[in-house]
């Protein structure tokens, strides 16, 4: 698995090729009992196949089954991620997130 998926310290959903190679994965950040944020990544060679969309939709269903609310955030400039969000059922509410970080 790519290093970013190890950061979740929980189960992740992945898609592998016929030889077991990693193609795509999704993790769930559990902020609290009610809000869970989805994060997805696909290797460049596997993009355009709908893998991220299916992973995000499956992860969202699991979050809903747990009684929590799934969220999906992306950079507005990331058109591919915006397409994944829309295709998986996450409408764009037009919100922007800002963070405050220590110097």
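Q: What amino acid sequence fits the structure above?
A:
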């Amino acid at each position: 698995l790519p290093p970013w998926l190890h950061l979740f310290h929980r189960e992740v959903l992945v898609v592998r090729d016929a030889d077991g190679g990693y193609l795509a994965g999704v993790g769930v950040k559990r902020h609290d009992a009610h809000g869970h944020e989805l994060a997805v990544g696909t290797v460049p060679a596997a993009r355009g196949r709908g893998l991220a969309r299916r992973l995000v939709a499956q992860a969202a269903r699991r979050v809903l089954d747990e009684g929590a609310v799934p969220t999906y955030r992306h950079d507005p400039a990331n058109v591919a991620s915006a397409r994944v969000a829309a295709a998986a059922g996450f409408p764009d509410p037009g919100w922007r997130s800002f963070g405050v970080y220590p110097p």
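Q: And what stands out in the fold?
A: Helices lie at 3-6, 51-65, 79-87.
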